[in-house]
Amino acid sequence: MIPQPARRLGLMIPSSNTMMEPDFVTGAGPGTTVHTARMFMEDTTPEGENRMLDEFALPAARDLGTARPHVVVFGCTSAGALRGNGYDTQLCQQISELAGAPAVSTIGSVREAIEAAGAARIGVITPYVDELNEKIKASIEADGVTVARIAGLGMTENFEIARVAGGAIVDFAVRALGDLAASGAIDLVFASCTNFGAMAARPVIAERLGVPVVTSNQAVLAAALKRLDTVAA
């Protein structure tokens, strides 16, 4: 039997991200291949992310376009939220034009997943510093969802974020949001950052807190695969 051509999923990630590729390769399933372009970024700070957006994002989209992907993912949650939801939409349009394929945003996919779950009040955990947490909160609340609490680990070295163990992420979620979940003050948890090992920890967080959990990689992978179904059928 002659194998069918693979569906090509393009992935744009910060250069220091080591978590998103394994999550996508594991979760994409047979028949979908993952092809990555890296955008230089070492520091998970507004300064580091602004530089990535201004200097490296669009060249990465152009380069990735030469692999002729069917769909492209902009794989940085906080950079997508950094300049507001309108900018994120505009950026995805530019990426789509340069790569020659539809572009899917991580923060946009998260917002869609929160809406699909019908959540009105959520708790958020991140590895970020407060300046980035404020941008994530503003992005989500622009849709009318209340962020009852957002807690970050205060990490600024992106490579180190991927080294936070799954058990530590679960413990952090319980410590930061357990009281809100137990009292019914939140109806969903969002674990942010594409370099955070929250996708694998998601079922345990949900079990411990008793509420649904959305993670960056889980949400954007689902959105990208759904889009692939329409453009690469």
Polypeptide structure, described:
- The structure is a single chain.
- 53% of the residues lie in helices and 18% in strands.
- The chain is an alpha/beta fold and 233 residues long.
- It folds into two domains: 7-107 and 219-231, Rossmann fold (3-Layer(aba) Sandwich); 109-215, Rossmann fold (3-Layer(aba) Sandwich), CATH 3.40.50.
- Helix 5 (106-116) packs across helix 10 and helix 8 packs parallel to helix 9.
- The longest helix has 20 residues, at 46-65.
Q: Can you identify the CATH class of the largest domain?
A: Alpha Beta
Order of helices and strands: EHEHEHHEHEHEHHEHEH
Q: What is the strand tally?
A: 8
Q: Helical proportion?
A: 40-55%
Largest sheet: 4 strands, parallel
| Estimated structural class | alpha/beta
Radius of gyration: 17 Å
Number of helices: 10
Based on the coordinates given, report the CATH architecture of the largest domain. Answer: 3-Layer(aba) Sandwich
Mean pLDDT: 96
Total domain units: 2
Poorly predicted sequence stretches spanning 5 or more consecutive residues = none
- Strand proportion, as a percent range, falls in 15-25%
Shape: globular
Provide key terms for this protein.
233 residues; alpha/beta; Rossmann fold; 2 domains; 4-stranded parallel beta sheet; 8 strands; 18% strand; globular
